[in-house]
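Journal club prep, notes for RB
We'll compare a predicted complex against what the paper describes. Inputs for the nicotinamide-adenine-dinucleotide case:
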Amino acid sequence: MSTTTAQKSDIANPALAAEGKKRIEWAGRNMPVLQQIKERFAKEKPFKDVRISACMHVTTETANLMLALKAGGAELALCASNPLSTQDDTAAALVHEYGISVFAKNAIDRDGYYRHINSALDIKPQFVFDDGCDLVNTLHTTRTDLLDGILGGCEETTTGVIRLSQMTKDGALKFPMIAVNDTDTKHMFDNRYGTGQSTLDAVFRATNTLIAGKIVVVAGFGYCGKGVAERAKGLGAEVIVTEIDPTKALDAMMQGFRVLPMTKAAAIGDVFITVTGNRDVLREEHFSMMKDGAILANSGHFDVEIDVAWLEKNCKVKNSKMRHQTDEYVLKNGNRILLIAEGRLANLGAAEGHPAVVMDMSFSDQALTAEWLLTAAKNLKPGLHNVPAEIDKDVARMKLRSMGAELDVLTPAQELYLNSWEHGS
Ligand SMILES: NC(=O)c1ccc[n+]([C@@H]2O[C@H](COP(=O)([O-])OP(=O)(O)OC[C@H]3O[C@@H](n4cnc5c(N)ncnc54)[C@H](O)[C@@H]3O)[C@@H](O)[C@H]2O)c1
């Protein structure tokens, strides 16, 4: 550990470093594609003299991404992309075992959260990683002095991509950002299987409830919502989906889920999970008709999907931390509502986030996209761009290989057939 690096950090508890290192290594074992990329980076040093600021969930999987970039020669500063998602042992290990600057503490307040983003930006990055667009937003609002030095960056999640595409439409985005979320190897697996499993994991850890026999209401049937609904069904729940998009609602129905508006589902559900990327999905009109003991969790990016402010203001009694990351609000009608992880990303606040096996793909996409950006950035206009399709396919191929699967290959006749239009019935 270098003392200077440690001084350039702000973490909760250095004593947790040894425990964090063990868990980072455990995650690393389950990220074979990223390990392969890291080994190549270590030889080729593509990021030599490159400064990168990253605003991401400080988890063991993110730690492995940071280690791959560091092996490639990058100078890094990492801050959290959510006040509740930091694993303090991971942060400690990154600083004290691996010499990476980290500015992140679990359960930090809003001021501290933005102070940490600013600290991560103090290295004057050339490239940025963001998860939800808070770092990019900070650059465009309060740290505009740094904009000229930024060559480009990568965005990890759906909500960040939505914010960046609005910035692009408004002509506000001053450098190219790449929508890593939109690769198939990211959203088809991380959002679906990762969020599905880890959100249910959060419900177990926070409440120890039995899902079998319960009615689980899932708000939003996008990639995350599908994953949550499938996992809840697999555990024996009856699943109700709420949607605003007719095609997504139809998809949910044909997969065997009931589709209802929240004004009807609210009175029936036992467990409510929001994954819409939208605000006020669960609000006063819904809380007032919920059953006694209803459990609420949000796995959408920001803590705006459940109107927690209303619960805080209007409950008769609040019993904080009844269990790990579970607050109880007793309403004026006497019914109790259980809220997981303060309405913030439940899977990261009350559980460990996605399993490393799935983050292997997302973070391999990130690592390879960052490497591509080193040379591609100068030719890209400011605005939101897609990851090159070859990177997506390469990650899929490497992941398949790591899972012991083999692909078929086209015969020359098949290749010709697929590339021609003359053949009909
Ligand atoms: N928890 C995690 O670890 C994790 C992982 C990936 C993404 N996310 C976040 O989860 C959210 C959803 O991501 P996604 O990839 O599933 O997005 P998506 O766009 O695929 O799906 C969102 C769905 O919500 C629906 N929706 C919007 N407003 C609604 C409303 N008021 N009621 C019901 N449905 C509504 C949309 O029609 C859409 O089908 C985003 O905020 C994303 O950033 C979280």
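Talking point for the session: Residues 220 and 243 are 5 Å apart (CA to CA).
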